[in-house]
Amino acid sequence: MVRVGILGASGYGGAELIRLLKGHPEVELVGFSSRKHVGKPLEAAWPQLWDGALFAPQEEVLERAEVVFLALPNGLSMEIAPLALREGKRVVDLSGDFRLPPEVYEAWYGIPHKSPELYEEAVYGLPELHREEVRGARLVANPGCYVTAATLALAPLAAVGALKGGFLVGLSGVSGAGREGEGTFFAEVNENLKPYRAGGTHRHIPEMEANLGRVLAQGRWPRTHGPRAELRLSFTPHLVPMTRGILLTAEAEVEGHWDQARLEGLYLEFYQGEPFVRLLSDLPQTKATYASNRVDLRPLYEARTGRVLVFAALDNLVKGMAGQAVQNLNLMLGLPEDLALPKEGLWP
Amino acid sequence: MVRVGILGASGYGGAELIRLLKGHPEVELVGFSSRKHVGKPLEAAWPQLWDGALFAPQEEVLERAEVVFLALPNGLSMEIAPLALREGKRVVDLSGDFRLPPEVYEAWYGIPHKSPELYEEAVYGLPELHREEVRGARLVANPGCYVTAATLALAPLAAVGALKGGFLVGLSGVSGAGREGEGTFFAEVNENLKPYRAGGTHRHIPEMEANLGRVLAQGRWPRTHGPRAELRLSFTPHLVPMTRGILLTAEAEVEGHWDQARLEGLYLEFYQGEPFVRLLSDLPQTKATYASNRVDLRPLYEARTGRVLVFAALDNLVKGMAGQAVQNLNLMLGLPEDLALPKEGLWP
Amino acid sequence: MVRVGILGASGYGGAELIRLLKGHPEVELVGFSSRKHVGKPLEAAWPQLWDGALFAPQEEVLERAEVVFLALPNGLSMEIAPLALREGKRVVDLSGDFRLPPEVYEAWYGIPHKSPELYEEAVYGLPELHREEVRGARLVANPGCYVTAATLALAPLAAVGALKGGFLVGLSGVSGAGREGEGTFFAEVNENLKPYRAGGTHRHIPEMEANLGRVLAQGRWPRTHGPRAELRLSFTPHLVPMTRGILLTAEAEVEGHWDQARLEGLYLEFYQGEPFVRLLSDLPQTKATYASNRVDLRPLYEARTGRVLVFAALDNLVKGMAGQAVQNLNLMLGLPEDLALPKEGLWP
Amino acid sequence: MVRVGILGASGYGGAELIRLLKGHPEVELVGFSSRKHVGKPLEAAWPQLWDGALFAPQEEVLERAEVVFLALPNGLSMEIAPLALREGKRVVDLSGDFRLPPEVYEAWYGIPHKSPELYEEAVYGLPELHREEVRGARLVANPGCYVTAATLALAPLAAVGALKGGFLVGLSGVSGAGREGEGTFFAEVNENLKPYRAGGTHRHIPEMEANLGRVLAQGRWPRTHGPRAELRLSFTPHLVPMTRGILLTAEAEVEGHWDQARLEGLYLEFYQGEPFVRLLSDLPQTKATYASNRVDLRPLYEARTGRVLVFAALDNLVKGMAGQAVQNLNLMLGLPEDLALPKEGLWP
Questions:
Q1: If you classify domain D146-315 with CATH, what class do you get?
Q2: Which residues in chain B are closer than 8 Å to A179, comparing Cβ atoms?
Q3: What is the model's pLDDT at position A218?
Q4: Predicted ipTM?
Q5: Predicted TM-score of the model (pTM)
């Protein structure tokens, strides 16, 4: 049993971590904190949980735990992670603080970075691409929902050097905006649909571009196409009137001659044996991944335009957040990667 | 490991059983059948499941299993249950076929009963009231969502003889109507709310009345009030624009002098130690029980009218259907009653 | 053309008034105010409106208008109504300030009443019961959604002296809680259902009781049953995951011998010729009244219990708020009562 | 008063036509037909309408009307339109039968065309582009929701010859699939999101391409860029869990040097004076167009990629169907184009 704690248990990510970790046979959940709820019972904040345990002060959680999940707002993790590491704890950070080079982070997040030295050590926690690095990591930067979907959707094309550009449309349920996200009142979201942060301004863009560049740079796959200039992606997120779920629809501009068979072959090979990536012969739908840690993918060659469409569906709070964090924990602890993580969804 | 099979895996109840049983450590799921899907892979019918197993013919499932779940339409279970019992299988029936005395069944369901002799043997599978009987049962009649909510909401008052009458309003998500339920197209259900089968015509009414009468007859609780005439309940179901969840709001006409403290005392005592009944100090909400096997209850004394309000929330596909069936299975097998059954919900 | 102004145009009621009044052939909308938005264009607050007009200061609107709608929070109307009346304006107040006797108001709303003398003059603006009084009124107290539904549902039984008591369940879409109502974030309301202010604490209860008592006291209908003691209603509101619409389900305890034919006869006679009350032979559903000023009613005799069920559906922002206010305006101005008010709904 | 009839009043388009035409001051609605409902009262099929009129046989409607709306399935209009024209009626057809050259129609719809000779006469009823032709038309082919959105979104760029290609993502509410559309059960659509007919197979694609080619060919705008090869668009529709509303998100590949100011200038000039096109300075959202005949547009220059994003929102049953048909009717009759058509939406 490993002693695990959670800092920031007042948000959806924290609550989902509690739910998953309470069902984890190798984890002892030794505490969870929230400035807002400290001293209150868990049920007061989270009516779905049946547990009289109290929100603890942050220091107590840090002290008791061997591994700490940081489910904190951007800008806070960079202050707390060094303290935890200094005390010999291992850290899985769910914020954006260690996902990008500090100078890129500062440019896109508008927050001065207080622990730039840790970026080098931090391992980018997308297990499908960085499984080995995660195993030994002290500090894991756990990627978010849009980026996980976009990276997994396009990684095979990037790996072989075929990805020239892409127009990505992200469609997200409202829980992605957090528990009391701005502009998420029911009466204004229901029966409504809208883009937001359009025009190349969403801060997940540099992370997607970096991930796909790194796949190519890893050189693990035979590069079948010429060297790539820097990749520039267009990404437009939309808010959809539902609670959970992300669908990413990508149109990729590709180099070389493609057809449906070759495309499917590449994806099958790339994701062979992955415990949480399912390649469909039909189009994905978010509901099929509800409450599971799975990603459903479908690449489609569009002959009329010569472009490749890729669809990815996942649950933004599980594979796009807390589930992925537990997947990283399992790797860090040398446990089976899928321990305590559902591969199947809730329907309807 | 016990070999378990499911007949009728094309409906939501069947799918939910598959999901729960696949995660059950003492169960080997040896087959599932559906006339509609026989020979097809599970995923073709259920995109949330990641499993290449094929729907099997009914006979095969019956043959392989030691315990059989019947998730069949009313009228079919009464044909198949005797066959299964004759082969030495134990049966959990999710239909209405064995929940009521045959003559009452025929009057309310309009279906001639083909196995009336089995009614006597069938155990009514509401564990909170009939736990001991279920343990030894060969045939369990698993109650449905509205009846489970109504019975658990009013059982304490009934047990002490205080329940004189009740006006019950049931509010149900759409999944209660089945996978392709009549009148459940999205565009006509969304942003809509309607009563149905009003005026004392819903066939769950006699089951509720019988259950509450039986609680009194059991005599396990000190009767604090005089003998009761036959109980007559008013029950009005409504369709609500959501997928899962039932809320039951009951106004009980009560005998004797009540106040909030005495009321809460009765419920606390009655449900003490129950693994799946939670008494709230706040009002229940369906979302808190989402995907869990829990019932949330709240009795409230209304001083202005001298009536008692009781609110009950549950997930109609779990505690109101498949979860309760697994709870009964656990009892039948002498396993911990809560094995493989979530007590906590999914939020948001 | 009558010059009309709106104070409090930042809420849903105000916006709905603007929409209805812009389509009114006898109204010139001379201004609308909002403390929050003053000086900003209408479109900045209300993206559905295509109108560059600016939110004006309150005094300007008051000065320009002959008739003023007050769509203000409880407690504010009682300050502004006397000013407007003193300037010779006529007033339709959408708040609760003039709906109840000041001492009752203070007890239920917890707000000291600053214009108790105006209560006597204020006309209760439910046209179906007080049409003639509204025509000559200077100050109309426009009733809200639950009360309109409950009163119209039970008025016929009350009028003949047959109503002994009632258990009322109100089911409301989220817009009833206002634009940024507490506890109305999408992710927590969607796929959720909950009662609130249960136990006889909702402040619409005394208004319902008073209305039904007044119907009896009016003595316009032959009293077929004996004198009534003070009526006590039980009312339990619920929040339903939809935006617009109210369904009221009432179980009435009645005196005398009733059957379905007699019941329908009473309702048909009582509401004969009403432009906005439709009696259905089927059960009502909220969607059928969407964006209309109609109420759909259905009384149902429940033989098993001897009780009467009545169902009422309406759009809480139209007949339950802004539409009813315009209906009152039409009466005050001697115009056709249904001018510029839709009798038919939007579907789907 | 013009005598107008509707064939095919059992679908959402027909019902919306009835609602709009009943409020039209220059129209006498002389009949509506539906094979399914003939002889039944309107309310039996459409609970939102309060009207005892009966569904009439098709021949009766045809005989009484001067102008006929055909809200029929694809393949039926081509049989009935010639009959109506022969009798001297004018026709607005809401199906796809006269929108494409017969050979293209046959290739994409898989239906042999029975009235190919009428295609030449039919006027494509998108008023913003073909206002003058519609005025004199006997037969108008009324475009659908996706095509209206896509065409209006990209027409300005096409008109000046700058549009080289485009990746279009369509997001639609469920009512676009019709009253009992396949795969639109609430429990499977709610909390779900999915693409459909992806990969260049949706039959609105050739219509979009043809429309944009025609804008260029009209030559009404100064062509600022070189001659275009045939335009090939990628279009991927998605089903979103809401009832009404379409959002089109387009990434346009453009020729020439663009920036935000030049882009907005072009759109402002192109749509100057249009009664139903609103250019926003913010991003569109579908709810703002709910129940209105308006299209909200926003072009956005994306500097990082050099592409142009255009967002369009409309109500698929109004501007995308019945409202546009009434707009065409107004033009055909020489009436104000916006008569009886709401420019403003319903919120919330």
A1: alpha beta
A2: 348
A3: 86
A4: 0.96
A5: 0.97
